[in-house]
Amino acid sequence: MPGLIWLCVLLILSCHDGVDGVTEFIYNGFARSKLHLDGEASISKHGVLSLTSSSCGDSSFTQGHGFHPEALPFVNSHGVSMSFSATFVFSITPSDSDTSGDGMAFVISLAPLSGTWTDGQYLGLVNQDDDGGTLANRFFAIELDTVANWEFRDIDNNHVGIDLNNLTSAASSTAGYYSDNVEKDFHFFNPLRLSSGKPMQVWVDYYEMQLNVTLAPVPMNKPSSPLLSYYPIDLAKVLKNDTKSKAGVPTTAYVGFSASSGDWCASQQIFGWSFNLYGPAKPLDLSLLLPPLKQVQDSSRQEAHDKKKVVKWVPATISSLAILAGITTCLLFRWWWCKKRMSERNEDWEAELGPHRFAYKDLRRATNGFDDNQLLGKGGFGQVYRGVLGNSGMDIAVKRVSSESKQGLTEFTAEVIILGRLRHRNLVRLIGYCRHKVELLLVYEYMPNGSLDSYMHTQTRHTMLSWCQRLHIIRGVACGLLYLHEDWEQVIIHRDIKASNVLLDGEMNGRLGDFGLARLHDHGADAHTTHVAGTRGYLAPELTRFSKATKATDVFAFGAFVLEVACGRRPVGFNARGELLVLVQWVRDTWASGSGSILDTVDPRLDEYAADEAELVLKLGLLCSHPLPVARPSIRLIMRYLDGDLPLPEFSPEYLNITDVDQVLDEVPPSVANSITGLSGGR
Ligand SMILES: *[C@@H]1O[C@H](CO)[C@@H](O)[C@H](O)[C@H]1NC(C)=O
Ligand SMILES: *[C@@H]1O[C@H](CO)[C@@H](O)[C@H](O)[C@H]1NC(C)=O
Ligand SMILES: *[C@@H]1O[C@H](CO)[C@@H](O)[C@H](O)[C@H]1NC(C)=O
Ligand SMILES: *[C@@H]1O[C@H](CO)[C@@H](O)[C@H](O)[C@H]1NC(C)=O
Ligand SMILES: *[C@@H]1O[C@H](CO)[C@@H](O)[C@H](O)[C@H]1NC(C)=O
């Protein structure tokens, strides 16, 4: 029987091996294939391609490459990139369980990779002395990376990335896949550990400059949503040999795999590979890959086997009553064992992969059944309850978000999962979430000192925030916003900065909450309504016109917030005579009027404050509230003004006086390029 299967393997291999012409091939196992091997790469007698050997011993730096022997016409004679599609099954097994091992890459390069390049983190793609740019290594690669290298701005130690001529990925994502829920419209992110030793399948689809990368555990079918989708990539440009005269565009390139092992040893194996230059790659026949796959799985199989033995042994020897008892014991043991493993795994993932998915009943228990006594507040998105997690005793705040639009909620959930990866000392951390019917429950860390709003505007508070505390909070919020706008891998527009969204932790640090949440409105709103999320007084003038949130609209809201904290008044409120008072105008007019000083607007409840700091803060608040988006400083600049690294530019009150904002805005449309939250792309 096994002989027959192997005969089939050989037959299929022999008829596919290169016979389909130069543009399509399928390797259901690599036995007898004519791959171009280099370095440590080898093909076992079962047809498994190993890129490096797992026993690295003393010579710790090893690498290997396996390439299809013929160059393929990736670019036509007019310099236009051809589409292609590829799929392969791989596994990465670290040599000892404590380390993750180094990763590997699927590569298209001008020449088959070879040579004496060193060090694990370079994945066998580049020499550490020439990271990209040189003619020898024009390449396009999908990296399956298991080490976080800060020099390449890796997002974590378990990610899939798209590399264009250098190892700083153009796009990357934590390894995993989106499963297609029964509800169809909802894609739930399931993390995968690349270096688990388990076989996984990758699909790479490139069509009209769009590149999709999809990952799934074997033997799952291809998930319908890709893990990574990137546009545009022009393969012809990526592979262009700069030194070549005239066009310099190559027409052919080589395709294959590359890996290296450095301080962390691992064995990277490929079991099968299908490729097509002009259409979808033929699906791999997993049953043909199975014999070698079985070997890899042996170790994990062994564990399961041992467990089964116990299950069988107990009932077989004793009477039927004992059988029952035995089964019960086993079920209990299994339950305990699974639970233990689950919780361990969750801890792992939590540390690296973002928010935890909670069970609804746990959150209900934590909040005493969403008891009214636990209510912390009501926001634009729903109620917030205080809770205590049963197993850890951790204090949490649970926000119940509901939406009329189910579609909106499901799309939004995917973004929430991304938002959960954000970590910054000036952001309220999103610990986890739970989706229950039409509700999304968001679990945040609990902020013992509540919202800034209650300190600013509630008369019953005994404690008045001092000037020092206020300045510290403003700096903290600026720092958090800087992280969202510039320092994270994607630009996050907060969209709803205001005093009630600034929370105070135990040390009275200001922390931004609800980041990205205003997006829910976007997902929910239908195309014809121009609903703008945000709060009156914090809304930039162009936002009400163009409904397009940008970094500049966030800065406007930040300006309103800064004035609010310094003056102790709401952005839009009433003065003692009951007249409407727009804070920005009032501060500006007080400054402009010859009789007064800008410092007259400082919160009268403050007994003492540093006059130079107060002046800086007030003027900065005004500058951020400039009617024209282009006139507002970036958050990085704001940070430097606040830190005293740069003096605030000199300006007069008239600078802020644009009488006909609408007319000017028509001439200067706001930048729309940077309005990205969550999933929608890079900066
Ligand atoms: C590396 O590639 C990225 C994305 O293609 C690009 O933005 C970056 O400038 C490159 N870095 C270097 C050092 O070439
Ligand atoms: C990539 O994925 C998107 C979303 O699923 C899909 O619309 C698009 O057609 C895919 N493109 C390719 C090249 O597969
Ligand atoms: C790039 O062009 C130069 C000059 O023609 C040539 O020497 C070099 O081999 C080319 N590089 C590759 C990878 O083809
Ligand atoms: C802030 O919270 C901490 C810890 O709960 C508490 O000790 C402190 O008194 C609070 N500060 C104010 C000003 O309420
Ligand atoms: C701004 O313009 C308005 C209308 O032209 C004028 O009444 C006001 O005095 C100006 N304010 C300043 C500060 O120049």
Automatic annotation (TrEMBL):
Protein known as: Protein kinase domain-containing protein
Keyword field: ATP-binding, Kinase, Lectin, Membrane, Nucleotide-binding, Serine/threonine-protein kinase, Signal, Transferase, Transmembrane, Transmembrane helix
The keyword Electron transport belongs to this UniProt entry's keyword annotation: no
GO MF annotations, alphabetized: ATP binding; carbohydrate binding; transmembrane receptor protein serine/threonine kinase activity
Membrane topology qualifier: Single-pass type I membrane protein
Organism: Triticum aestivum
Subcellular location: Membrane
Family: In the N-terminal section; belongs to the leguminous lectin family. In the C-terminal section; belongs to the protein kinase superfamily. Ser/Thr protein kinase family.
Signal peptide region: 1-21
Cited PROSITE patterns: PROTEIN_KINASE_ATP, PROTEIN_KINASE_DOM, PROTEIN_KINASE_ST
Biological processes, Gene Ontology terms: defense response to bacterium; defense response to oomycetes
Domain Protein kinase: 370-651
Binding site for ATP: 399
